[in-house]
């Protein structure tokens, strides 16, 4: 593919072709859930991410001017077309074929060629394996304990509690899968991410989540930033940072299409748009009022944690229900409250311009950006 098309458009063609191919199998499985004994769409989802990410990084390295790139894009840019073997190794290597996690081509090459000094990862591997055992047990115990009943006689408070418990009981499944994928790569020596100030090695380059930050998130953005981290990196790199039309909406639509064709996916991600914008507006406007004393900060954190959990449980409910009918029935029973409230907040709260810079974003954990070779201390 890369030898036959215009490199100035290669990233767009690759993203479109891989997404169309993936969507075909999503539709096929949606129409006939039992058509295949093994669901291989997850592997295709990972392959879609890798191929499209490679194309965008190759475009950055060969077509765009160096001055037009952000620091992150400069570090990830692929400056020459690799051979077929490195390309296939990156895309279909067994370490990340079935469930990822996604990584950049440059990080993968650093690992393959052994261009980093690191100690034995056994301690980290054993810790994560113990965590996997705990998460698997939690999944087995909790996964069938809670569900969304859609009983019209339930009170609003009970429905929200039910939504929270249902969402919380589903999370260990993802925690387990992503942690296991991470530990498999760590055991092979992939995932080293430098050394902390007190000398401990970091093995979180490929980490796909931060459980503590998810469960204690005090903002919608904090929750999203720590959930499926590598997919968020991919969405930001191929869509959010480049979309000429409403980057947030474009990113959520791409995310929904990548996940599948169930109406619940689109309902969830479209609901997330006003919720995200409203949460951002509330944080910009109200947060400064609570930053004067430690008590006010604590009160703000508790309130925002509760609001975040309520908003997230409401937003992801269609993702769990999948169908359009059950999702509409649920939201109707709640009066579409968290669709209406964000829109009202966006109308009444002032819009303060954000001062987002690459320098500011560099304060985020480097595993959120995936540029291994910049942050290593060897």
Automatic annotation (TrEMBL):
Q: What cellular component GO annotations does this protein have?
A: endoplasmic reticulum membrane
Q: Give one GO biological process term.
A: lipid modification
- Which controlled-vocabulary keywords does the entry list? Acyltransferase, Endoplasmic reticulum, Membrane, Transferase, Transmembrane, Transmembrane helix
Which InterPro entries does this entry report, sorted A to Z?
LPLAT_7/PORCN-like, MBOAT_fam
* GO molecular-function terms, A-Z: acyltransferase activity
Where exactly are the transmembrane stretches of this chain? 12-31, 252-277, 298-324, 330-349
Task: Give the way it sits in the membrane.
Answer: Multi-pass membrane protein
The record's subcellular location field reads: Endoplasmic reticulum membrane
Superkingdom field: Eukaryota
Region entry Disordered: which residue ranges?
A: 356-378
| The protein's name in its UniProt record | Uncharacterized protein
This protein's species is Engystomops pustulosus (Tungara frog)
